[in-house]
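Cast an eye over my tokenised protein here and flag anything odd:

===
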Amino acid sequence: MSSYSSRNNRYYDSMRQSHGNNSRSQSGNPVDDESMEEMSEDLQKIFDDDSKCARLLKKVLRDERSFDLRIQRIQEFQVYLEKSDSSKFIMKLAEPALNVLFEQFQERSHETIRSELVHCIGLIGYVMLNEGEPKFAQWIFDRLNAVRKNDIQKQLLVSAFRHSIQNEHEILCLSDHIQHISEQLKKILESVVHAPLMIVITDTIIDLSRIYPQVFQEIFTDIVDILIGWYIEPLPTDRILEYTAQALHKFRPFWIEQIEATLTLLDHFIEDADNYAQVNQYKKETMIVLDE
């Protein structure tokens, strides 16, 4: 602690206290010395930096009692992150900033604060990719694995990743990593049970499929098969029906390109739809008999 100036101690203390005085995280899991040391290194890099980027981030990390003030400080940081002339300073602190923001993201229970924090993460990722640094993709997927049991957090993190790739069609920063990224997105989509997460992942896949169509062709049939499964779910909502229909339509170039796979998928769809109709008819007949 002696390496920090006294004006920065309160930031470090608030982060340390967020783990609890008995060295346990809020989730109840023990915090080992290695993870605390790693977090201390991230904080020290931020606290030792006197740039505007670091100063605004320190304000974000401050444990404010006022909800409105906390939101205000996060949004001030977002405004800074969106400025084109901030990139140099953002890149200097990108990785430690991502780590401490993710720590805050996990610990904050208020969804508005979480959404604002994850927007900061997406903005930093956008800067990293536009500066030719693809590490953000691996960073975000590592964090997705860390929150794999929390669909709301996964949804927010995928949204942050989607924001970061807004300019990918021009910079192609992820060209050497897109194979792994597409497989990771497919893997997450396969296990999704909540529609909002399914939608944001599918939207991200659609975005990337337009930039890297040759890679998407390899997972096209799997993605379509998953979406058809959502479409013929028992009692699907109008929103799911409308969304999946639109998503399948957006894959039109791939339907045409892979005509044999398309015909096979259509056969499966007809078969599944027919089975679903038969099950529904059986249920109706059973209910009629029971009513009699």
Q: What stands out?
A: The radius of gyration is 23 Å. Residues 57 and 137 are 22 Å apart (CA to CA). Residues 259-291 form the longest helix (33 residues).
